[in-house]
User: Which sequence fits this backbone?
């Protein structure tokens, strides 16, 4: 079963474009572009491994969404894309996060040994 990643962005087609460009990764992509859709995805998909939020959303909206995600699903890591890399930086950012946080084998710590 593929891990699930929730992509949150300003425009619905942006999220679709990211998923299309990264379809070589073994990930099930979900998308959301507003608060009701984020809540719906979090409440209906228990397998979400992480949330990645684009930089196009207003700071107030991003903050509100972080609060909602943290309250509904405190088990999920939230990754925010920087604004400096611009729209072209979204796909590489998502790929880095997914490869390092979702697809990488778990690291053993000294306490776990």
Assistant:
């Amino acid at each position: 079963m593929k891990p699930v990643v929730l992509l949150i962005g300003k425009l619905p087609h942006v999220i679709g474009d990211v998923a299309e460009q990264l379809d070589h990764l073994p990930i099930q992509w979900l998308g959301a572009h507003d608060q009701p859709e984020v809540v719906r995805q979090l409440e209906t998909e228990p397998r979400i491994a992480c949330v990645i939020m684009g930089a196009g959303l207003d700071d107030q909206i991003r903050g509100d969404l972080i609060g909602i995600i943290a309250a509904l699903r405190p088990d999920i890591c939230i990754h925010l894309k920087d604004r400096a890399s611009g729209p072209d930086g979204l796909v590489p950012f998502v790929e880095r996060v997914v490869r390092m946080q979702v697809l990488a084998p778990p690291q053993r710590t000294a306490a776990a040994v």
Remarks:
- The chain has a mean pLDDT of 91.
- DSSP finds four helices and four strands in the chain.
- Residues 105 and 111 are 17 Å apart (CA to CA).
- Strands lie at 4-8, 28-32, 48-53, 77-80.
